Design the sequence.
């Protein structure tokens, strides 16, 4: 059973970089054909897919966020990380990590962008 846990600061100031880590247990982030994703949900809005890093280490992100998004991984720690730069209040959301196309989700972490 794959388990995911998000971690990171709950409060980020505008123009700073948001950095979140997803720690994976019960499976390896190099498992074939798994795509390790970041998704968020802002208040009152639908889920928004941010991007993924694949089992091979390739990355792809949403065109609307691509210029501000970086996703990386640390295979020795079985973790992958989201960095979102130049944050604005509209980036306030619950951020989730998951294995794309499966029922494996983290519990989510609230991130608020405010001065």
Sequence:
């Amino acid at each position: 059973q794959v388990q995911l846990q998000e971690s990171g600061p709950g409060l980020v100031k505008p123009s700073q970089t948001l950095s979140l880590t997803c720690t994976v247990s019960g499976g390896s982030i190099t498992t074939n054909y798994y795509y390790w994703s970041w998704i968020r949900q802002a208040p009152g809005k639908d889920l928004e897919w941010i991007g993924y890093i694949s089992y091979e280490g390739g990355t792809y992100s949403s065109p609307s966020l691509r210029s501000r998004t970086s996703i990386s991984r640390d295979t020795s720690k079985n973790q992958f990380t989201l960095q979102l730069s130049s944050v604005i209040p509209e980036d306030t959301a619950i951020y989730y990590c998951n294995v794309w196309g499966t029922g494996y989700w983290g519990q989510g972490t609230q991130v608020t962008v405010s001065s």
Summary: Residues 74 and 85 are 20 Å apart (CA to CA).
